[in-house]
C-alpha cells in the first residue's frame, strides 16, 4: 500500500464578485434648461421674501435678470427690495435703466425724498399731479414734504384729507393720527406757545429782546476768536488740570494701622501656602490603642474615689 501524502491541496481563490452595476454605464446629468432654472429661482425668491431675507432676495433677482434681462416681475421685485433695504441710490440707477422711467415716477420721488433732495422730489410729484394720478401714496409723500419744509398748515390739510378716506381700524389710520398730533403741536407753538414762553420771561429780558443783536452762530464765533488771536491778542490760559482722585479707603480701615489683607485670599484653600499647617496627622496623638496592645502596656487608671497621689509610695 503506497504511503499517504502529507501535502495539503492548495485552495483556489474564488473569482471576484462583479457588481450588478458594473456593466451599466453612468449617463451624465443633463443641465437644467433656462425655464427650469427660472422656476427654481422664483421659488427661492418667494421663500426669501416670505422669510424677510431681503438682502439674499436681491441677489436672487440678479440671478434671474442674468438669465432673462427683460423679466418685468424680477425688475419690479428688485426695485421693491431696494426700497425696503434703503438702497435708494441703487433704486434710482435701476429706474434709469428702465425703458420707460416714467412708469416708476413715484418710486423716484420717494427715493429722492429719503435722500434729502426735497426740491427734486417735489418736481416729480408735481408732474404726477398734472397727469391726474390719484394714488394715496402721492398724497402721503406730499404731506411729508410739506412737513419737512415747515408748511405745517398745508401738511395738516393733506393729512385731514387722507384721514377722511382711511379705514378706521387700519394701520394707515393710526399713522395719520400720529402725524396729525405732531403737526398740531408745531402749529400750537407757532400760534400761542411762543407767546406764553415770552410772558414767562422777566421784564428785564423782554424789554431788550427786540433791540438785542441776533445770537452769533458757533462757526462765526470760532472764526472771530481765530482772527482775534491772529491780530496779536493773547489766548486765554487753559484750565488747570484736575488733581488726581484720592484712593478710596474702605470704611473702618486705618492706613498704617489695620493689617493688610491676606494676599492669598483669592486662591482656593487647598492652593494656599498655609494649607495643612497646625493639623495633627492621623496616628500621632497619644490617645487610642493600636492592634495587639494589652492593658498591661498602659498605666492603670485611678480608682473612683481614690485619686492618684503626686508622690511616691506611701509608708505603712
From TrEMBL:
InterPro entries per the UniProt record, alphabetical: Signal_recog_part_SRP72_RNA-bd, SRP72, SRP72_TPR-like, TPR-like_helical_dom_sf
Biased composition (Low complexity): 1-11, 217-235
Keyword Aminoacyl-tRNA synthetase: no
Protein source organism: Hypholoma sublateritium (strain FD-334 SS-4)
Listed PANTHER family: SIGNAL RECOGNITION PARTICLE 72 (PTHR14094), SIGNAL RECOGNITION PARTICLE SUBUNIT SRP72 (PTHR14094:SF9)
Protein keywords: Cytoplasm, Endoplasmic reticulum, Ribonucleoprotein, Signal recognition particle
UniProt domain Signal recognition particle SRP72 subunit RNA-binding: residue ranges: 238-275
Subcellular locations according to the entry: Cytoplasm; Endoplasmic reticulum
Compositionally biased tracts (Basic and acidic residues): 262-274
Chain intervals for the UniProt region annotation (Disordered): 1-31, 217-316
Protein name: Signal recognition particle subunit SRP72
